[in-house]
Structures are given as C-alpha cells and as structure tokens.
Amino acid sequence: MTSTSTPASYYERHIFFCTNQREAGNECCANHAAQEAFEHCKARAKSLGLLGAGKVRVNRAGCLDRCAGGPIAVVYPEAVWYTFVDKADIDEIVSSHLAGGVVVERLRTPPDVGR
C-alpha cells in the first residue's frame, strides 16, 4: 500500500514581524524600522523564490509582547525569536533560517526578554 505525504503545515516556515506602534512614545518595534525590515524580508525571500505554499510566508503582526527586545520577529514552526538591527541581519535570517533551516544563534532574542 502506498501512502502520500501530507505536509504538517501549509507553509514550511512562517515569519512574523512585530510592526506595532505604541502611543505616547512608549518603546515599540515600529520605532526601530520594523515595517522596513518586514518589507525587506519579503522582497529578499521573493527574490530567492522562497515564497508560496509549502515554502515560506512573511507577515506583519501586531504586538508580540516582547517590546524590550525590539525589533522582534518570530519564525514558526520552530518558535525562534529574533532581534535584528539592519538589513544584513534580515538577509542572514532569510538565507540561513528561512531558506536553509539553520537558526541564526547570534540574533536570537534572550528567552527572558518581555515587554
């Protein structure tokens, strides 16, 4: 009997970028160019052919409640949280983790960082 393989998820990996803007000047990811990082990640993943069903999805998210580590992104299904600084960091996350499945340890958000 032959069985067919069904993927565990519609996407192999899904990255969410917090792009939340807090009121009254409170610290938030939007203050650290999170929208630009999201746009860069999406464009980079697209240029590498990584987007689509069975591949990668790049999304904006509301507050992920880890503001002290901002800007923040999280990759599922591995639940790896990243803090990034610039486009080079995003490029490394895309090429290493999203494309190759290898976590970028130097960019991981410390586990105790919250709001």
Topology:
Blueprint: E1 13-18, H1 34-47, E2 56-61, E3 72-76, E4 80-83, H2 87-98
Parallel strand pairs: 1-2
Antiparallel strand pairs: 1-3, 3-4
Helix pairs in contact: 1-2
Summarize it.
By secondary structure, the protein is of the alpha+beta class. The chain has one domain: Glutaredoxin (3-Layer(aba) Sandwich), CATH 3.40.30.
Major sheet: order of its strands? 2-1-3-4
Mean pLDDT: 90
CATH fold category name? Glutaredoxin
- Estimated share of beta-strand residues: 15-25%
Distance between the termini: 52 Å
Major beta sheet summary? 4 strands, mixed
Number of helices: 2
Task: Give the fraction of residues assigned to helices.
Answer: 10-25%
Please write the CATH class name.
Answer: Alpha Beta
C-alpha Rg (nearest Å): 15 Å
Name given to the CATH homologous superfamily: Glutaredoxin
What does this structure look like?
- With 115 residues, the protein is an alpha+beta fold.
- The chain has a single domain, classed as Glutaredoxin.
- The chain has 2 helices and 4 strands; from the N terminus they run βαβββα.
- The protein has helices at residues 34-47, 87-98; strands spanning 13-18, 56-61, 72-76, 80-83.
- Strands 2-1-3-4 form a 4-stranded mixed beta sheet, with helices on one face.
- Helix 1 (34-47) packs across helix 2.
- The longest helix is centred in the middle third of the chain and has 14 residues, at 34-47.
- It starts with 12 loop residues before the first strand and ends in a 17-residue tail after the last helix.
- The relative contact order is 0.22.
